[in-house]
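pls read this stuff:
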Amino acid sequence: MKETDFEQQHGTLWQQFELDIEACLEGKRQPAASFPEHYRQLCGQLSLARQREYSDVMVARLNRLVMQGHHLLYQRESKASIHRLGAALVAFVVALRNQRRYVICSALLFVLPACVMAVGTYLSEDFTYSILSVEQAAEFEAMYDPDNLRFGPERDAETDLAMFGFYISHNIGIAFQAFAGGIFFGIGTIFIVLYNGIYLGAVAGYLTRAGLSITFYPFVIGHGAFELTAIVICGAAGLMIGHALVKPGSLKRLEALRLSAIEAVKLMYGGVFMLFVAAFLEAFWSSSSDLAVPLKLSVGAALWLFVLWFCFFSSLGARREPG
């Protein structure tokens, strides 16, 4: 096809696209619903113009239109993504506060056993080995040896980025176990939350008695604000599922499960997002031995205050749904 025929065939579209771009740039309106389709057509036409070696003037014009179109679409998608993220955060916080009784139950299942085990393992070596094997205890001491370059689990991976992936997989696995355990009338959720509380408490008490507080607590305090809170929240989601199955009320169990899952999934979305943040902090911040202990403790305390404020006191939850 000759260049003049090509321009005559598609020129109307190019002119309309130019007018649409000018109107959008001047703030008169947002891109029309047909804008993405027109943009796609222009991309194809630019590719043809280059392939057929049409004039530099035509190629430059089409390239300019494609670049401007791409910018507008990217800008719109970015705004839409930010809006969706904001809406998801609001839904998460509202659901969290509406379902606070499940959150409280999950927190008690996690925190109380952790405290009991921490005190018990700190006071009694025999009590420690009822939970941890001798090999596990020695492994934990090696993890938090003050002479280590990096603290935390053994780093089979060579980079912090690889450990970031490991932490995501591990933490989200626990979260989904806590959530999915609700399908067994809540028993699975109770077991997962209790077990993690008991295990964490045993490790904390043992390492404190072993004199490794100076490395252990600076390591866990930063990412722990997000990770431990997320486990409690995912546990609450599992308890919601279990309660709906145990006491469906006047509804059939499947209907009660469906309605409960709508709210529970909102909690899971927030919990999983928090676990991503926790994994990032654990890989790139918590494990570092170069950062001063007072700095780690200060930042960790600030993160705990932020998480508690955001989840339970921020204005995002002001619009509560009846619950």
